[in-house]
Amino acid sequence: MSPIKVGFVGLSKSGWAATILAPTLAKNDKYSLVAVSTTSQESAEASAAKQKETSGHTVKAYSGDTSHIANDPDVDFVAVAVKSHLHREALMPAIEAGKDFFIEWPAGKNLKETKEFAEAAHAKGLRTMVGLQGRHGAVKEIIESGTIGRVLSTSIIALAPRELRYWGPEVSEKNLSTAIAGEGTSMSEIAIGHQLDVFTYILGDFASVSATTAIMYPTANIIGDDGTTVKTIENTSADHVAFTSILKSGAVASLSWRGGYPSKGRQQFVWEIDGETGAIRMTDDQVASAFVHIRDPKLYLNGELVEVTGGGLATNIAARWEEFAKGSKGDYATIDDAVRIRSVIEAIGLSSREGRRVTL
Protein backbone atom coordinates (compact mmCIF):
# COMPACT_ATOMS: atom_id res chain seq x y z
CA MET A 1 0.00 0.00 0.00
CA SER A 2 1.33 3.45 -0.92
CA PRO A 3 2.15 5.81 1.97
CA ILE A 4 -0.28 8.46 3.21
CA LYS A 5 0.87 11.74 1.64
CA VAL A 6 0.91 14.43 4.32
CA GLY A 7 0.63 18.20 4.08
CA PHE A 8 1.70 19.78 7.39
CA VAL A 9 0.29 23.14 8.51
CA GLY A 10 2.36 24.94 11.14
CA LEU A 11 5.55 22.99 10.58
CA SER A 12 8.23 25.65 10.98
CA LYS A 13 11.95 25.00 11.52
CA SER A 14 11.49 24.87 15.31
CA GLY A 15 8.73 24.32 17.85
CA TRP A 16 6.41 21.49 18.85
CA ALA A 17 5.60 20.29 15.32
CA ALA A 18 9.23 20.40 14.19
CA THR A 19 10.75 18.74 17.26
CA ILE A 20 8.12 16.09 18.10
CA LEU A 21 5.21 15.64 15.66
CA ALA A 22 7.03 15.63 12.31
CA PRO A 23 10.07 13.55 13.39
CA THR A 24 7.87 10.74 14.74
CA LEU A 25 5.81 10.86 11.55
CA ALA A 26 8.91 10.80 9.35
CA LYS A 27 10.11 7.57 10.98
CA ASN A 28 6.96 5.75 9.88
CA ASP A 29 7.17 4.46 6.32
CA LYS A 30 3.37 4.45 6.09
CA TYR A 31 3.53 8.24 5.70
CA SER A 32 5.31 10.60 3.33
CA LEU A 33 5.59 14.33 4.08
CA VAL A 34 5.05 16.05 0.74
CA ALA A 35 4.17 19.66 1.67
CA VAL A 36 4.40 22.21 4.46
CA SER A 37 2.54 25.45 5.13
CA THR A 38 3.55 28.28 7.47
CA THR A 39 2.66 31.94 7.91
CA SER A 40 5.38 33.30 5.61
CA GLN A 41 6.92 32.03 2.40
CA GLU A 42 10.40 32.44 3.87
CA SER A 43 9.67 30.18 6.85
CA ALA A 44 7.82 27.71 4.61
CA GLU A 45 10.78 27.38 2.27
CA ALA A 46 13.17 26.97 5.20
CA SER A 47 10.95 24.26 6.66
CA ALA A 48 10.58 22.50 3.31
CA ALA A 49 14.36 22.50 2.86
CA LYS A 50 14.84 21.01 6.32
CA GLN A 51 12.25 18.30 5.68
CA LYS A 52 13.84 17.50 2.32
CA GLU A 53 17.13 16.78 4.12
CA THR A 54 15.31 14.31 6.36
CA SER A 55 13.11 12.64 3.76
CA GLY A 56 15.38 12.74 0.72
CA HIS A 57 12.63 14.03 -1.56
CA THR A 58 11.30 17.44 -2.51
CA VAL A 59 8.76 18.99 -0.11
CA LYS A 60 6.46 21.73 -1.38
CA ALA A 61 6.33 25.05 0.49
CA TYR A 62 3.06 26.94 0.98
CA SER A 63 2.33 30.03 3.03
CA GLY A 64 -0.66 32.03 4.23
CA ASP A 65 -4.14 30.65 3.51
CA THR A 66 -4.17 26.89 4.19
CA SER A 67 -6.55 26.30 1.28
CA HIS A 68 -3.41 26.15 -0.92
CA ILE A 69 -1.94 23.08 0.78
CA ALA A 70 -5.39 21.59 1.42
CA ASN A 71 -6.26 21.64 -2.30
CA ASP A 72 -2.95 20.21 -3.46
CA PRO A 73 -3.90 16.97 -5.30
CA ASP A 74 -0.72 15.32 -4.02
CA VAL A 75 -1.86 15.75 -0.38
CA ASP A 76 -4.05 12.98 1.10
CA PHE A 77 -3.94 14.02 4.74
CA VAL A 78 -3.54 17.43 6.41
CA ALA A 79 -1.87 17.75 9.82
CA VAL A 80 -2.56 21.00 11.70
CA ALA A 81 -0.39 22.14 14.61
CA VAL A 82 -0.80 25.89 15.14
CA LYS A 83 -1.86 27.96 18.16
CA SER A 84 -5.31 26.89 19.36
CA HIS A 85 -7.07 30.17 18.54
CA LEU A 86 -6.00 29.70 14.91
CA HIS A 87 -7.28 26.14 14.56
CA ARG A 88 -10.51 27.06 12.80
CA GLU A 89 -8.97 29.11 10.01
CA ALA A 90 -6.24 26.51 9.54
CA LEU A 91 -8.43 23.41 9.61
CA MET A 92 -11.67 24.31 7.84
CA PRO A 93 -10.06 24.60 4.37
CA ALA A 94 -8.76 21.04 4.78
CA ILE A 95 -12.23 19.78 5.70
CA GLU A 96 -13.80 21.70 2.81
CA ALA A 97 -11.24 20.13 0.47
CA GLY A 98 -12.31 16.68 1.70
CA LYS A 99 -8.98 15.77 3.27
CA ASP A 100 -8.57 13.46 6.26
CA PHE A 101 -6.83 15.36 9.03
CA PHE A 102 -4.90 15.55 12.28
CA ILE A 103 -5.62 18.48 14.59
CA GLU A 104 -3.59 19.23 17.71
CA TRP A 105 -5.43 19.32 21.04
CA PRO A 106 -7.49 21.26 21.99
CA ALA A 107 -9.21 20.72 18.64
CA GLY A 108 -11.49 23.75 18.81
CA LYS A 109 -11.23 26.90 20.90
CA ASN A 110 -14.40 25.80 22.68
CA LEU A 111 -17.08 23.09 22.55
CA LYS A 112 -19.10 24.90 19.88
CA GLU A 113 -16.14 25.17 17.52
CA THR A 114 -15.13 21.55 18.16
CA LYS A 115 -18.65 20.37 17.32
CA GLU A 116 -18.48 22.44 14.13
CA PHE A 117 -15.31 20.58 13.11
CA ALA A 118 -16.91 17.23 13.88
CA GLU A 119 -20.12 17.95 11.96
CA ALA A 120 -18.21 19.22 8.93
CA ALA A 121 -15.87 16.20 8.99
CA HIS A 122 -18.78 13.75 9.23
CA ALA A 123 -20.60 15.49 6.37
CA LYS A 124 -17.51 14.85 4.20
CA GLY A 125 -16.99 11.30 5.49
CA LEU A 126 -13.47 12.10 6.70
CA ARG A 127 -11.16 10.13 8.96
CA THR A 128 -9.91 12.31 11.80
CA MET A 129 -7.22 12.24 14.47
CA VAL A 130 -6.75 14.54 17.46
CA GLY A 131 -3.49 15.10 19.37
CA LEU A 132 -4.49 13.22 22.52
CA GLN A 133 -1.65 10.74 22.76
CA GLY A 134 -1.38 9.61 26.38
CA ARG A 135 -3.56 6.48 26.37
CA HIS A 136 -2.10 3.86 28.72
CA GLY A 137 -2.73 0.37 27.39
CA ALA A 138 -1.08 -1.39 30.34
CA VAL A 139 -3.54 0.01 32.90
CA LYS A 140 -6.53 -0.64 30.67
CA GLU A 141 -5.39 -4.25 30.19
CA ILE A 142 -5.08 -4.80 33.95
CA ILE A 143 -8.60 -3.52 34.57
CA GLU A 144 -10.15 -5.43 31.67
CA SER A 145 -8.44 -8.64 32.85
CA GLY A 146 -10.46 -8.46 36.08
CA THR A 147 -7.32 -8.50 38.22
CA ILE A 148 -8.59 -5.81 40.61
CA GLY A 149 -12.27 -6.64 40.25
CA ARG A 150 -15.00 -4.08 39.69
CA VAL A 151 -13.65 -0.51 39.96
CA LEU A 152 -15.38 1.28 42.84
CA SER A 153 -13.48 4.55 43.09
CA THR A 154 -10.59 6.55 41.71
CA SER A 155 -8.74 9.73 42.68
CA ILE A 156 -6.13 11.97 41.11
CA ILE A 157 -3.96 14.68 42.65
CA ALA A 158 -1.88 16.56 40.08
CA LEU A 159 0.50 19.51 39.95
CA ALA A 160 1.31 21.96 37.17
CA PRO A 161 4.55 23.23 38.74
CA ARG A 162 5.75 26.82 38.71
CA GLU A 163 8.86 25.88 36.76
CA LEU A 164 6.77 25.13 33.67
CA ARG A 165 5.47 28.73 33.67
CA TYR A 166 1.98 27.97 32.45
CA TRP A 167 -0.61 28.76 35.16
CA GLY A 168 0.32 30.65 38.32
CA PRO A 169 2.46 33.60 39.38
CA GLU A 170 4.98 33.14 36.54
CA VAL A 171 4.00 32.59 32.92
CA SER A 172 6.48 32.48 30.06
CA GLU A 173 5.94 35.01 27.29
CA LYS A 174 5.40 32.24 24.72
CA ASN A 175 2.67 30.78 26.98
CA LEU A 176 0.96 34.13 27.59
CA SER A 177 -2.44 32.87 26.40
CA THR A 178 -2.59 30.33 29.24
CA ALA A 179 -3.21 33.16 31.71
CA ILE A 180 -6.14 34.52 29.69
CA ALA A 181 -9.56 32.90 29.84
CA GLY A 182 -11.23 32.15 26.52
CA GLU A 183 -8.05 31.46 24.55
CA GLY A 184 -8.49 27.67 24.57
CA THR A 185 -5.35 27.16 26.67
CA SER A 186 -6.63 27.04 30.26
CA MET A 187 -5.56 24.39 32.76
CA SER A 188 -8.91 22.64 32.25
CA GLU A 189 -8.46 22.58 28.49
CA ILE A 190 -4.78 21.66 28.19
CA ALA A 191 -3.57 19.70 31.21
CA ILE A 192 -6.88 18.29 32.39
CA GLY A 193 -8.13 17.76 28.84
CA HIS A 194 -5.21 15.47 28.02
CA GLN A 195 -5.71 13.63 31.29
CA LEU A 196 -9.47 13.23 30.75
CA ASP A 197 -8.86 11.37 27.51
CA VAL A 198 -6.56 8.93 29.29
CA PHE A 199 -8.99 8.69 32.21
CA THR A 200 -12.05 7.89 30.09
CA TYR A 201 -10.06 5.52 27.86
CA ILE A 202 -9.31 3.46 30.95
CA LEU A 203 -12.41 3.91 33.14
CA GLY A 204 -15.19 5.06 30.83
CA ASP A 205 -17.22 8.24 30.64
CA PHE A 206 -18.51 10.61 33.30
CA ALA A 207 -22.20 10.66 34.23
CA SER A 208 -22.01 13.94 36.15
CA VAL A 209 -19.53 16.42 37.62
CA SER A 210 -19.50 18.83 40.55
CA ALA A 211 -16.62 21.27 40.28
CA THR A 212 -14.79 24.12 41.98
CA THR A 213 -12.29 26.34 40.19
CA ALA A 214 -10.26 29.21 41.62
CA ILE A 215 -7.59 31.75 40.78
CA MET A 216 -5.16 31.61 43.68
CA TYR A 217 -2.60 33.79 41.89
CA PRO A 218 -4.52 36.89 40.68
CA THR A 219 -1.53 38.30 38.79
CA ALA A 220 1.25 36.76 36.73
CA ASN A 221 4.72 37.98 35.89
CA ILE A 222 5.29 37.36 32.19
CA ILE A 223 8.80 35.97 31.79
CA GLY A 224 10.82 36.52 28.62
CA ASP A 225 13.32 34.12 27.06
CA ASP A 226 16.13 35.77 29.04
CA GLY A 227 14.41 35.01 32.37
CA THR A 228 13.45 38.59 33.17
CA THR A 229 9.94 39.91 33.79
CA VAL A 230 8.53 41.57 30.67
CA LYS A 231 5.30 42.76 32.31
CA THR A 232 2.74 41.82 34.94
CA ILE A 233 -0.83 40.99 33.95
CA GLU A 234 -4.08 39.91 35.57
CA ASN A 235 -4.66 36.14 35.61
CA THR A 236 -8.16 35.38 34.35
CA SER A 237 -7.67 31.63 33.85
CA ALA A 238 -8.14 29.30 36.86
CA ASP A 239 -4.96 27.83 38.36
CA HIS A 240 -6.82 25.42 40.69
CA VAL A 241 -9.48 22.99 39.48
CA ALA A 242 -11.15 20.27 41.54
CA PHE A 243 -14.19 18.12 40.84
CA THR A 244 -15.98 14.99 41.91
CA SER A 245 -17.98 12.71 39.70
CA ILE A 246 -20.02 9.58 39.31
CA LEU A 247 -18.87 7.61 36.30
CA LYS A 248 -21.33 5.84 34.03
CA SER A 249 -19.95 2.62 35.48
CA GLY A 250 -21.11 3.76 38.93
CA ALA A 251 -17.61 4.35 40.29
CA VAL A 252 -16.87 7.50 42.33
CA ALA A 253 -14.15 9.82 41.05
CA SER A 254 -12.27 12.75 42.56
CA LEU A 255 -9.75 14.85 40.62
CA SER A 256 -7.72 17.82 41.86
CA TRP A 257 -5.29 19.95 39.87
CA ARG A 258 -3.28 22.85 41.27
CA GLY A 259 -0.87 25.14 39.50
CA GLY A 260 1.86 27.61 40.41
CA TYR A 261 3.58 25.89 43.34
CA PRO A 262 7.34 25.24 43.20
CA SER A 263 8.14 21.56 42.66
CA LYS A 264 10.57 21.11 45.53
CA GLY A 265 9.21 18.77 48.19
CA ARG A 266 5.91 18.12 46.39
CA GLN A 267 4.49 14.98 44.88
CA GLN A 268 3.79 15.79 41.24
CA PHE A 269 1.18 13.15 40.51
CA VAL A 270 -0.81 10.41 42.24
CA TRP A 271 -3.59 8.40 40.58
CA GLU A 272 -5.25 5.60 42.49
CA ILE A 273 -7.80 3.18 41.10
CA ASP A 274 -9.50 0.99 43.70
CA GLY A 275 -11.25 -2.21 42.72
CA GLU A 276 -13.10 -4.71 44.89
CA THR A 277 -10.16 -7.13 44.91
CA GLY A 278 -7.14 -4.96 44.24
CA ALA A 279 -5.71 -1.53 43.50
CA ILE A 280 -3.67 0.31 40.90
CA ARG A 281 -1.47 3.27 41.75
CA MET A 282 0.36 5.55 39.30
CA THR A 283 2.71 8.10 40.78
CA ASP A 284 5.89 10.06 40.17
CA ASP A 285 7.76 13.08 41.50
CA GLN A 286 9.53 14.08 38.28
CA VAL A 287 8.66 17.61 37.16
CA ALA A 288 5.56 17.53 34.93
CA SER A 289 4.71 13.92 35.81
CA ALA A 290 1.05 14.91 35.95
CA PHE A 291 1.10 15.53 32.21
CA VAL A 292 0.37 11.91 31.40
CA HIS A 293 0.56 12.43 27.64
CA ILE A 294 4.19 13.50 28.09
CA ARG A 295 5.39 11.41 31.04
CA ASP A 296 4.78 7.80 31.99
CA PRO A 297 4.42 7.56 35.78
CA LYS A 298 5.47 4.48 37.74
CA LEU A 299 2.73 1.85 37.76
CA TYR A 300 1.98 -0.26 40.83
CA LEU A 301 -0.45 -3.18 41.02
CA ASN A 302 -1.39 -4.15 44.57
CA GLY A 303 1.75 -2.38 45.79
CA GLU A 304 4.12 -4.13 43.38
CA LEU A 305 5.93 -2.18 40.67
CA VAL A 306 4.89 -3.21 37.16
CA GLU A 307 7.59 -2.89 34.51
CA VAL A 308 6.15 -1.27 31.39
CA THR A 309 8.22 -1.17 28.22
CA GLY A 310 8.40 1.85 25.95
CA GLY A 311 6.45 4.96 26.82
CA GLY A 312 7.38 8.61 26.89
CA LEU A 313 6.23 11.43 24.68
CA ALA A 314 7.85 10.47 21.37
CA THR A 315 6.86 6.82 21.77
CA ASN A 316 3.26 7.74 22.59
CA ILE A 317 2.95 10.01 19.56
CA ALA A 318 4.65 7.51 17.24
CA ALA A 319 2.17 4.87 18.42
CA ARG A 320 -0.78 7.06 17.50
CA TRP A 321 0.55 7.66 13.97
CA GLU A 322 0.92 3.91 13.64
CA GLU A 323 -2.61 3.31 14.88
CA PHE A 324 -4.12 5.85 12.47
CA ALA A 325 -2.37 4.13 9.56
CA LYS A 326 -4.27 0.93 10.43
CA GLY A 327 -7.52 2.56 9.34
CA SER A 328 -10.79 1.82 11.14
CA LYS A 329 -9.08 -0.81 13.32
CA GLY A 330 -6.65 1.71 14.82
CA ASP A 331 -6.76 2.93 18.41
CA TYR A 332 -6.46 6.71 18.40
CA ALA A 333 -8.45 9.78 19.46
CA THR A 334 -10.82 11.25 16.86
CA ILE A 335 -12.71 14.52 16.54
CA ASP A 336 -15.63 12.77 18.26
CA ASP A 337 -13.38 12.10 21.25
CA ALA A 338 -12.49 15.79 21.23
CA VAL A 339 -16.19 16.69 21.40
CA ARG A 340 -16.68 14.22 24.25
CA ILE A 341 -13.76 15.59 26.28
CA ARG A 342 -14.74 19.18 25.50
CA SER A 343 -18.22 18.41 26.85
CA VAL A 344 -16.70 17.35 30.19
CA ILE A 345 -14.57 20.50 30.32
CA GLU A 346 -17.64 22.61 29.55
CA ALA A 347 -19.54 20.84 32.36
CA ILE A 348 -16.67 21.53 34.81
CA GLY A 349 -16.83 25.25 34.01
CA LEU A 350 -20.62 25.37 34.21
CA SER A 351 -20.69 23.50 37.52
CA SER A 352 -18.13 25.87 39.04
CA ARG A 353 -19.91 29.00 37.83
CA GLU A 354 -23.38 27.92 38.95
CA GLY A 355 -22.43 25.93 42.06
CA ARG A 356 -24.30 22.78 41.06
CA ARG A 357 -23.79 19.26 39.78
CA VAL A 358 -24.00 19.01 36.02
CA THR A 359 -25.28 15.86 34.31
CA LEU A 360 -23.52 14.78 31.12
From TrEMBL:
Pfam family for this entry, one: GFO_IDH_MocA
Top-level taxon in the UniProt lineage: Eukaryota
Keyword annotations: Oxidoreductase
Segments traversing the membrane: none
Domain annotation Gfo/Idh/MocA-like oxidoreductase N-terminal: ranges: 4-131
Listed GO MF terms: nucleotide binding; oxidoreductase activity
Protein name in UniProt: Gfo/Idh/MocA-like oxidoreductase N-terminal domain-containing protein
Domain Gal80p-like C-terminal: 139-283
